[in-house]
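User: Please predict the structure of the protein below. I'd like the answer in structure-token form so I can feed it into my own downstream comparison script.

Assistant: Understood. Taking the following sequence of 396 residues as input:
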Amino acid sequence: MAATKLWTRKFILLLLVHLLLNLAFYMIAPILPSFTEKVNAKNVLSMAVVIFIMPSYVARLITGFLCDRCRNKGTKIIGLMAIGLMIISFIGYSEVHNGEQLLLCRALHGISYGMAIPPISGYLARFIPEERSISGHASQSAAGNLGMIIGSVLSLYLDEKKFLGDTFVVGAMAVIIGLILMVFVPVPVSKEKIVSVGKVISVSHQMKTSEVVKKVMPFGLIMCSVLVYSAGVTTYIQKYTNEMGYIGRNSSYMAVNTAVILFSSLIVVWGGKKIGHGRLTVMAFFCFAVGIVGLSIKSLTMFYLAAIANGIGTSFLSAPIRARAMESLPDERRPLGSSVYYTIYDGGASACVLYGMAGDRWGYQQAPLSLSIFVAIGGFLAIQKMRKKNTLLTFG
């Protein structure tokens, strides 16, 4: 019975760390335009975004391979180092006075954020019993979404009240608490072993790194394809609402969409096992289809229906896909698998500029239909991968 228990002390500690790091990230992201204006660095706003993303990608991949080599205890040390660097970046934000200093802090923040993902996501994947896989990964999504909501609302509130500098203090405090909690997270012990010629050999050593990448890549591509559409909608929602005559409705769309994502994540946490991987995936793509149609019709009712449908689709799809990706890997290879998965996954966020290009060319009302091919590709890949489950021969 203990082997199937999800809500253990170590799992809750890591969820809190994940929540706090996401909260800290969103203490900065929404107020970045205001911050660049305050330090007379509006000309480096785009560069401040890019210089965060690119080092984050590189650091994530490198850290994934380092965690794969260092294994259990080394992975935790890397995680603590990453969070420590993040604290330094937040202290740096509070001392920024020009564009060059801002770019330096953004680069350091990007490196630390990328470094933190493989240890934390990899540990979370190892602490989730296979029988509770969907619920566990949905819990990770819910914690991240809750951190996003709290961080965004708090940072925008402080900015509105002219307490911009306090956002860095709050962010630093969140990361410091995350570091303290991470110290108390126990080092996982791999239980996956196979018996070969009278010797006990870890399953992890039987799978080549290329095989890890091969197993995770299709799942990452599913989410990457869908994210081109879903991230495109949220990124260019203001241009869409302006074109459609829904002036000022972009914020209400985001509020509805974010609330639905969080609520849907909780549904998956508590009911995901009963619903199952396949049904969640089918319902997710049905919701994305409703969202595409809703945004293609000029109607406020359909507009908000699309916000709800896209939110449900995002929550219902991310948990089963990530669960399948991690289930296909041996225990100790999951930090590497996480780094590969999230690097491919975030490629969709970067590629969402295609949505903007389609909107500029054919109009933002037509952009959802234009980008629906990516959702269709994701659906096709999902059908191929979710029809059968990859399992490992394990002995406790």
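That's the full token string. Residues 99 and 111 are 18 Å apart (CA to CA).
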